[in-house]
Amino acid sequence: SVWALRHVPEVYNFTEQEIVDEYHGWQKYIVDHIPAPFPGIGDIIRRQKEAGGKICVVSHSCIQNITRDYETHFGILPTTLRLGLTGGTAQAQPWPLEQIMAKYGYTQSQLLVVDDVKLAWKMARSAGVPIAFAGWGRRDCPEITEEMTRLCDFSFTSTKDLEHFLFDEV
User: Fold this and answer.
1) Helices (H), 75-112
2) 135 with 157: CB under 8 angstroms?
3) What is the tens place of the pLDDT at every residue in 77-114?
4) Beta strand residue intervals within 73-166, DSSP E
5) Which of 15, 41, 48, 156 makes a 20 to 30 Å CA pair with 75?
6) SS3 of 110, please?
């Protein structure tokens, strides 16, 4: 994703041009390569939709790819797509979440951001929205796992843990 690419200079010292080249290379690749979802995430997405919940995607990925991937893997389209990239730079801004809340009349406590990157945490915090760390995608990155577990309101090591949190009576 572009969010990930925006962090490339911090880690690999890429130039802005190299970031653009990486982005275009990724765009070419995903035209005919559909990434597999994490096992179990489809069950959560379908259950949320069936229960009348909204599936809102905040992403820098192309809308065509997101809709293709959701249709292919889950048989549904997200309720809302909000792109978080503005002016060519990644910003941890509250705008996408504010738009979702305004459109559906939700309060901050009625939303949950689920992600595995710090930029999503910054976005959620700036909007006053709780965030759950999707730890199942960061098993090989103990430093990220430790930081995100500490920062986030909730932390889950598996999609099954998230599913229990969302749907099981406590």
Assistant:
1) 95-104
2) yes
3) 998 887 654 444 445 589 899 999 999 999 999 999 99
4) 80-83, 85-86, 89-90, 113-115, 131-134, 154-156
5) 156
6) helix
Quote the tokens at residue 102: 């305004």
Contacts with 156 (C-beta within 8 Å, 6 or more apart), sequence order: 132, 133, 134, 135, 136, 162, 165
Is the separation of the CB atoms in 98 and 127 below 8 Å? yes
Beta bridge partners of 131: 113
What amino acid occupies position 112? L
Beta bridge partners of 81: 57
* 151-161: b (≥16 Cβ within 10 Å) or e: ebebbbeebeb
Residue 100 and residue 110 in contact, taking contact as beta carbons nearer than 8 Å: no
